[in-house]
Design a protein that fits this description.
9 helices; single chain; 24% strand; 9-stranded mixed sheet; 9 strands; alpha/beta; Rossmann fold
């Protein structure tokens, strides 16, 4: 069972919902599918890539020791996102901001529906992912001097089976890099990069500025604790009328390493009823 919504947010007419309605049969099917996909890759850590990385792909030591462990059948945020995609979309246009080594991304790449999958991360794409992708095009540009990223930024197109997969390797603070996505329409966005209120507010401004939302959309944020939760409510308060936000959820749910760490505080909004 998904945990209950934990609080109401101030200053908007939309209450947070008590629970997300996902058919148990669908959720169980997705969980089985995802656990099987996860078993295809036994080691997510490429030591050479980690050595060259900005900050170890955002994998702290306490996560690294459990990163490759098997997950049980408790739902994770990936299971919820995929179940929502199956339930509501005929085609998935997915953007993940903060891909890391690609654990969640890989499960999304393997969704069984027509999809296009885009990742955005300051780290170069994990070589463990590129071994299963076919590279098409790559363009590069200068990274702003003030960024912690010291190499060029890039956008690389791949194919995974017949699914287009794009990887934007750039700093989320770099507006010029966001522009490379201009007018792509995403119906599911997962924000899981820099977990600061300023960063998620800036990201949302970029999503709006470059017209990245499809007519019907779901947005998911990970790690909404403390001031991050306030930033989530601030986004809703500022944009609920513009985008006609219909549903708001705040769930405690397992993350990328499942039962091997505490549940995450995950926020979800949509402009239609979930
Ligand atoms: C928690 S991990 C993402 C986990 C992944 N979404 C999953 O579920 O498998 C956070 C990622 O955000 C990236 N990140 C942190 N700061 C960033 C920045 N300024 N620009 C782009 N990516 C950033 C890190 O490189 C790291 O890979």
């Amino acid at each position: 069972m998904l945990s209950k919504i934990i609080e109401y947010f101030q200053g908007s007419s939309i209450p947070t919902n008590p629970e997300i309605k996902i058919d148990q049969e669908l959720l169980s099917k997705v969980i089985a599918e995802n656990r099987s996909i996860q078993s295809q890759i036994s080691n997510w850590i490429d030591r050479e890539a980690f050595k060259k990385s900005c900050f170890n792909y955002g994998v702290p030591d306490f996560i690294e020791v459990v990163l490759n462990k098997e997950l049980n059948n408790e739902p994770t945020y990936t299971d919820i996102m995929k179940a929502l995609a199956y339930k509501h979309f005929g085609d998935l246009n997915y953007l993940e901001i903060g891909v890391s080594v690609g654990k969640n991304f890989h499960q999304m790449m393997n969704i069984e529906m027509p999809a296009s999958i885009t990742g955005f991360d300051i780290e170069e794409i994990n070589p463990i992912l590129t071994t299963i992708l076919t590279q098409k095009d790559k363009s590069t540009w200068n990274t702003p001097a003030k960024s912690i990223k010291k190499s060029d930024s890039s956008l690389t197109s791949f194919l995974y089976k017949s699914t287009p997969v794009d990887y934007l390797c750039a700093d989320v603070w770099d507006q010029n890099s966001w522009q490379k996505l201009e007018n792509r329409k995403f119906n599911l966005i997962f924000s899981d990069a820099l977990h600061t209120p300023e960063a998620i507010l800036f990201e949302f401004e970029m999503i709006v500025k470059y017209g990245l939302l499809d007519d019907k959309f779901i947005i998911v944020w990970d790690d909404l604790v403390g001031k991050m939760k306030n930033a989530f409510f601030k986004i809703i308060k500022k944009y609920d009328k513009t985008f006609g936000i219909q549903d708001v959820y705040l769930l405690n749910i397992n993350g990328w390493v499942g039962q091997h760490e505490q549940p995450h505080s995950v926020g979800i909004i949509s402009n239609f009823k979930l």
